[in-house]
Amino acid sequence: MIQQSLQYLRNDEEQWVKTVLIGGILTLLSVLVVPSFLVLGYLVRVVRGTMHESEQPPVFDEWGDLFVDGIKAFVVAFVYGLVPGVIATVVIGGSVLSFVVGGGSESASLVGLGMAGLLVGGLLAFVLSLLAAYVIPAAVAAFAETDRLGAAFSIGDLRPVLTSGTYATAWVYGIAIVLAASLIAGALNAVPVIGTVIGGFIAFYAAVAAYYLIGHAWGELRDVELNEQDDAMGESPAV
């Protein structure tokens, strides 16, 4: 599946180079905000296509729709990422205050409390951020399938997917691809300018491959769910 995900963009023999060029340039320009929404919109299209078993990658067109989908995907990521951010800020902020106050008053207990709070807060922030990173792709897939933003926050619908081995495996593979791309991009940064530019294209390619895996996992799980529903409806009550 990893090999298929890395091959995905190249399935469009005529357009794949153009798609990577556009995606890479938009990724490099993400600091301008608008290009990042367009990249997110493209990833939504990737998920939407692959969950229906399409091996033909989307192209960059209908830019208005692409932009709107990107904004909605950003909202999903922002909301799920907001909770870990707020909790980490409150816990770490309180710990820093205890540390500062304790240091000023030479209170060993307050200093110790502040240091312990920093460690616990940092660990809590890491765990919650990891949890958010696990949920966000599934939430984006839920939105991509239904075209309803509310579906991304329906915990009841997301739970069976999030607790499945199929999704967990796809997510781990996707993270592995993104991390590998990050390492390569980091190594390329040793070459001024050129390394950074190439890294942008690698990052886009890796993100597409990762969301290809998420889309396939979502589609596979939804097919199983629909088949189970059909079987249940087909069962006639005993007389």
TrEMBL record:
<feature type="transmembrane region" description="Helical">
    <location>
        <begin position="73"/>
        <end position="101"/>
    </location>
</feature>
<keyword id="KW-1133">Transmembrane helix</keyword>
<feature type="transmembrane region" description="Helical">
    <location>
        <begin position="113"/>
        <end position="144"/>
    </location>
</feature>
<keyword id="KW-0812">Transmembrane</keyword>
<dbReference type="InterPro" id="IPR025098">
    <property type="entry name" value="DUF4013"/>
</dbReference>
<dbReference type="Pfam" id="PF13197">
    <property type="entry name" value="DUF4013"/>
</dbReference>
<feature type="transmembrane region" description="Helical">
    <location>
        <begin position="193"/>
        <end position="214"/>
    </location>
</feature>
<feature type="transmembrane region" description="Helical">
    <location>
        <begin position="20"/>
        <end position="44"/>
    </location>
</feature>
<keyword id="KW-0472">Membrane</keyword>
<feature type="transmembrane region" description="Helical">
    <location>
        <begin position="165"/>
        <end position="187"/>
    </location>
</feature>
<protein>
    <submittedName>
        <fullName>DUF4013 domain-containing protein</fullName>
    </submittedName>
</protein>
